[in-house]
Amino acid sequence: MFTEQRTNATTNRLAATALALVMAVSLAGCARDRMTTGSISRSTPGNVASMSAPQLNQAADSLGKAYARNSKDKDTALRYASVLQMNGRVDQSLAVMRKAAIDHPKDRGVLAAYGKALAAAGELKPALEAIRRAQTPEYPDWRLLSAEGAILDQLGDKDSARALYRKALDLQPNESSILSNLGMSYLLEGDLKSAEAYMRQAAQAPGADSRVRQNLALVVGLQGRFEEAERLARQELSPDKAEANVAYLRSMLAQQNAWSQISEDKKKRN
Asked: Where are the TPR repeats (predicted)?
């Protein structure tokens, strides 16, 4: 039988991995006043999340050269860090944003992106501090409220996290990224039915992207509905991106036995 500590560790490991996908959605628009969400450069349009691996590599190479020429250019640093993070180069992305935060210590967009990079690297408490520094209480940004909630969820403070999600929804009703983060909060708790309900709302909301649907697929698959989960993972994507999503889904669902054990263990403790 799992101990309480082992149960929580398994739950957090599975759900926090998926939560990272949605945090990218939550923070993507924080600097929207100066750059288009997901943009790479004026000569490289398109959404980062929809790029193939070769496209991400090409964008990283191009932006890396621009960054080397002028590392203090804020927009270049933000774009470069975003591409590096989507390409799995988390430590390098954090290094870029750490320097940007030093160069632009009062810029909300930079601080928000720095918080995202810290959270992706697992440095949750510094990430929380950066997000809170970026927020302005007199004119709160719903994206930052949602991002703060996602970090608090990973720190185990689900009640505070959900209160922030609901404040964010008051400011931006029916926003897919907030609803998806709320669903992830219930996934972290092991409440898969509630998680699915919020994930379905998120997937049907305007602006929902493939990462939101991918997390819905994960929640559905964790309840044993594997064929439905794979259909969701393939929706509205190019064949190569669809296969990548399905591969991710299968890797997560390979731990299904752990989730079953968690459920059984909870029943025995109640």
From this structure: 142-175
> Residue 109: which domain range?
53-134
Q: Which long-range contacts (CB under 8 A, 24 or more apart) does 191-194 make?
A: 192/219, 192/222, 192/223, 193/223
- Cα(194)–Cα(158) distance, rounded to whole angstroms? 14
pTM metric for this prediction: 0.74
The Cα 159–Cα 97 span in angstroms is 30
User: Hey, is 44 helix, strand or coil?
Assistant: strand
| Count of alpha carbons within 13 angstroms of residue 210, beta-carbon side | 21
| 8 Å CB contact between 184 and 19 | yes
- Residue 64: give its domain's CATH number: 1.25.40.10
DSSP category for residue 104: S
Q: How confident is the model at residue 78 (pLDDT cuts 50, 70, 90)?
A: very high
